[in-house]
């Protein structure tokens, strides 16, 4: 019997019917039973400002967010690409979770990134910019398979369900590999 791992999903788009959100929901349905996945919302987070993170406490949305990420065994980032980079709302969430200094909620949590885009290169720029931040945050990142999902407007029906069998199979394989990556990185802790 496998240990059930708690996986936080951060979706880099705030739009309810975004391609990233559709992909996140699909990933949740094809994941192995050993993964308990839940989306942690990031749209309510005020912009990070160190002045607000002092001895008197932090803004309530920051505290709530940090408390939602802390118990997660791993983190899955599902993101679009904005201007060849990570959406600002996702970068802000990463910054909020990394502070105050010495109390990062990200430290040593295994991570995986799936970028998705209507364009042909599948959010390659966002994926790699995000990897740079996660390396600094000491998050071991799943290397293979790389997940750049292009042409995404053709992959989902109006209700958000996946319509492309090859992509669904890729998503399933991606999640199985992520589950194995999590176990390798959490062994012995």
Can you give keywords for this protein?
globular, 189 residues, Rossmann fold, 5 strands, single chain, five-stranded parallel β-sheet, alpha/beta
Q: What is the alpha-carbon Rg in Å?
A: 16 Å
Stretches with pLDDT under 50, minimum 5 residues: none
Total domains: 1
Bin the helical content.
25-40%
Largest beta sheet: strand ordering: 2-1-3-4-5
CATH-defined superfamily = Flavodoxin domain
Share of β-strand residues: 5-15%
Q: Mean of the pLDDT scores? A: 94
The CATH C-level name is: Alpha Beta
Q: Count all strands and give the number.
A: 5
Largest sheet: 5 strands, parallel
Task: Name the CATH architecture.
Answer: 3-Layer(aba) Sandwich
Shape: globular
Q: What fold name goes in the CATH topology slot?
A: Rossmann fold
Please describe the topology of this protein.
Layout: E1 5-11, H1 19-30, E2 35-39, H2 60-69, E3 74-79, H3 88-97, E4 111-116, H4 124-136, E5 148-149, H5 165-186
Parallel strand pairs: 1-2, 1-3, 3-4, 4-5
Summarize the structure.
The chain is α/β, with parallel strands linked by helices.
Describe the structure.
- With 189 residues, the protein is of the alpha/beta class.
- It has a single domain, classed as Rossmann fold (3-Layer(aba) Sandwich), CATH 3.40.50.
- The protein is built from five helices and five strands; from the N terminus they run E-H-E-H-E-H-E-H-E-H.
- It has helices at 19-30, 60-69, 88-97, 124-136, 165-186; strands at residues 5-11, 35-39, 74-79, 111-116, 148-149.
- It has a five-stranded parallel beta sheet with strand order 2-1-3-4-5, sandwiched between helices.
- Strand 1, helix 1 (19-30) and strand 2 (35-39) form a beta-alpha-beta unit.
- The longest helix is centred in the last third of the chain and has 22 residues, at 165-186.
- The two termini are 19 Å apart.
- 35% of the residues are buried.
- The model has no long low-confidence stretch (mean pLDDT 94).
């Amino acid at each position: 019997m496998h240990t059930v791992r708690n996986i936080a999903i951060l979706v880099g788009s705030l739009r309810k019917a975004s391609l990233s959100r559709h992909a996140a929901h699909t990933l949740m349905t094809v994941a192995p039973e050993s993964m308990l996945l839940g989306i942690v919302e990031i749209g309510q987070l005020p912009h990070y400002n160190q002045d607000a993170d002092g001895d008197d406490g932090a803004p309530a949305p920051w505290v709530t967010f940090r408390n939602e990420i802390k118990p997660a065994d791993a983190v899955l980032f599902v993101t679009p690409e904005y201007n060849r980079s990570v959406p600002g709302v996702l970068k802000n969430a990463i910054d909020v979770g990394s502070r105050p200094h010495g109390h990062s909620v990200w430290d040593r949590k295994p991570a995986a990134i799936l970028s998705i885009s209507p364009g042909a290169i599948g959010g390659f720029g966002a994926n790699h910019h995000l990897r740079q931040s996660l390396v600094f945050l000491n998050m071991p990142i799943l290397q293979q398979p790389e997940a750049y999902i292009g042409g995404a407007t053709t992959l989902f029906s109006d209700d958000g369900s996946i319509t492309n069998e090859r992509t669904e199979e890729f998503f399933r394989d991606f999640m199985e590999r992520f589950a194995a990556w999590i176990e390798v990185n959490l062994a012995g802790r």
